[in-house]
Specification:
Blueprint (H helix, E strand, L loop, with lengths): L1 H5 L7 E3 L19 H17 L4 E5 L11 H17 L4 E4 L2 H10 L4 E4 L8 H6 L6 E3 L8 H13 L3 E5 L11 H9 L1 H5 L11 H7 L5 H4 L18 E3 L8 H10 L15 H4 L2 E3 L8 H6 L13 H9 E3 H6 L11
Parallel strand pairs: 1-2, 2-3, 3-4, 4-5, 5-6, 6-7
Antiparallel strand pairs: 8-9
Amino acid sequence: MDELLRQRAQVAEVYFSWGTMPNGRHAAAAHANLTAAEAQRRTEMDLQTLADHGFRFNLLLNGNCYGGRSLSRMFLMEVCDTIEEIGARFGIASVTTTSPVLANVVKRNFPDLEVRASVNMEIGSIAGMEYLADTFDSFYIARELNRELDQLRVMRDWCVKNGKKSYILANSGCLRHCSARQFHDNLVAHEREIAEMNNGAEFHGICADYLRGAADKAVYLRRLSFIRPEDMAQYDGLADGAKLATRVSRVPAQILRAYAQGRYAGNLLDLLEPDHAATLYPDVIENNRLPADFGARTAQCGHRCETGGECSYCREAFAAACVRIPDYAVADGGDSCDHTK
């Protein structure tokens, strides 16, 4: 909260979920140290503080699945009642959802709200936007296009011509083209039901195991789709805004501060959600040690490494930036990581 207030001029809107409604992360009322009622009161106090300081709000209705309630009249009425209550108390500027049904209901009943397609819908083409042009006012573009500037520009041009807005997710720690993402997002949407079951298995995504087990650690740079704070300027004019994911981060204020300032000295993985810092420990990726042209090169390289092309850029960049923590703490920059030698 303190960092949000300090960075007020840099923050276009604050997004939030409500109560126990499924969304793209854990329910707002699910808190490790607070009861559901206490967590709800905390949310309301925070929203009031931010509203008093003039922040705009985006309500998240972006659960990947609403199960048997997805089309029910009672559920749709509950959503409308919730929007009406929150809007009257704190104000809402926009709603983000993965559900075309919810988008239509919100659009019909609250025509002044911007209805935005969630990044979880993985919309990465003009066709994907055209299919839902009558349903959504704006679109989060698929994470994978963060490193496809030409395609981002094409989609942005379409949005401008058709009276739509486009947004990007800047600090995603998700694997590019993750084949388990939909399954994982569905589990998150049903986390309350799953928690009540006598489960015989656990699933926390495949990204951590994949990164930890990779022999070539350059995958941390090559297979993720993050944009560094220093590289945000090259996206000017390519989107109406950049979302920062912070809801399950250990250091949300640090993330906000880094992107607001456009620079960061420290472990790059700490800025991502999920952050993956534990999978590389005791090594870190020192952001300041990455080449100055990292953003420009990786956003326009065409990913030749994935199609048999020869390129050692990410491997060399990782070798330069990877630092072992014990050495890093006592020496200027520390020694290189063993696995890059």
